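Figure 3 (text version): structure tokens given as input.
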């Protein structure tokens, strides 16, 4: 009989285990894949952290993560996770980007609107359109994602939390005594279960089969003809160009943790992918085209690429809720492509919902 069983070893599963262990709970984490796998959405060197969002509640949540979530994690794990760099968010002043501006600029956060000419002077490697509106986010930074995952695993190990790799949860069953988790290897019982499996959430919790869609992203790391100092954290910004609709949303980061500037389309629409299928090889052509569209320095090469699996909820919402199956089961549907930055906050939300012994 386990006390709390966390199913899923991504950022939200590990942050949940961290928060629960700090509150004195005995925790075991199960992950269906091997340590450091690239099948989900928590691998990779870096993520964007920012205050700019299309809804006020996420602006506030981002502030909570920046002011308390990541600083606490950094202090407890003895590692630096947030590396400050400018944040530039731009696009036509109507449609989706208008929602970003309305939610962010009125929230009292350190984000200001600047004109295109000022943006071009400050960030000459980015290509802006003449009619773009621009927000400069002074709270933005690069989040050391791989470092966070490594640090969490080590802290959990050192604090008595077992992480079991290569054991997939197949089904859940609830009775008065416990939640039974049937895995690919055995049956485990627990007083409470946290399901933080991303795109695989619906396999265990039927109420999430229809709402969640798995959408695989293709991320590139590109080299351009620019002095190395201009592409580094602190100089080159994290950026998003957001069009009138969700179909026109691209982003990028400075070089961090691996060679090249990171960039990709933020794809939340279209037909879902099969999360259990091995990804096809990535065509570098669209990544090269994106680099030529949004970067002013001459393109030289796509140095590498990787897949990232989004679990997209309706309206890209984040959810930490009790399951319809049983209130002792906590469902974490907190991705939609922007959940990593909220990891420590989501972990605390999970711990709040897990009932005391």
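Below: residues designed for each position.
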């Amino acid at each position: 009989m386990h006390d709390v069983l966390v199913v899923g070893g991504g950022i939200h599963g590990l942050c949940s285990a961290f928060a629960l262990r700090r509150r004195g709970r005995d925790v075991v984490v199960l992950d269906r894949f091997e340590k450091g796998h690239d099948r989900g959405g928590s691998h990779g060197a870096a993520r964007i952290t920012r205050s700019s969002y299309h809804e006020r509640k996420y602006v506030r949540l981002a502030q909570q993560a920046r002011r308390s979530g990541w600083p606490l994690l950094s202090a407890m794990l003895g590692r630096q996770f947030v590396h400050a760099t400018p944040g530039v968010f731009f696009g036509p002043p109507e449609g989706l980007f208008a929602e970003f501006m309305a939610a962010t600029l009125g929230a009292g956060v350190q984000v200001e609107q600047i004109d295109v000419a000022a943006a071009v002077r400050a960030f000459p490697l980015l290509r802006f359109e003449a009619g773009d509106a621009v927000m400069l986010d002074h709270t933005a930074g690069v989040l050391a994602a791989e470092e966070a995952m490594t640090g969490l695993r080590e802290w959990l190990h050192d604090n008595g939390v077992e992480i079991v790799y290569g054991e997939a949860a197949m089904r859940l069953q609830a009775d008065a005594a416990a939640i039974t988790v049937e895995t690919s290897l055995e049956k485990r019982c627990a007083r409470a279960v946290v399901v933080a499996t991303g795109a695989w959430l619906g396999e265990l919790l039927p109420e999430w089969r229809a709402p969640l869609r798995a959408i695989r992203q293709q991320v590139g790391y590109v080299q351009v003809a620019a002095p190395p100092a201009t592409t580094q954290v602190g100089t080159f910004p994290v950026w998003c160009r957001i069009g009138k609709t969700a179909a026109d949303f691209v982003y990028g980061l400075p070089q961090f943790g691996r060679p090249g500037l990171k960039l990709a389309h933020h794809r939340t629409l279209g037909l879902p992918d099969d999360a259990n299928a091995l990804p096809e090889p990535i065509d570098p052509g669209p990544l090269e085209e994106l680099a030529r569209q949004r970067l002013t320095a001459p393109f030289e090469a796509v140095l590498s690429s990787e897949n990232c699996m989004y679990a997209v909820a309706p309206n890209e919402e984040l959810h930490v809720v009790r399951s319809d199956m049983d209130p002792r089961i906590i469902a974490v549907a907190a991705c939609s492509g922007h959940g990593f930055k909220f990891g420590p906050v989501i972990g605390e939300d999970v711990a709040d919902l897990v009932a005391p012994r």
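Residues 2-353 form a domain with the FAD/NAD(P)-binding domain fold (CATH 3.50.50.60).
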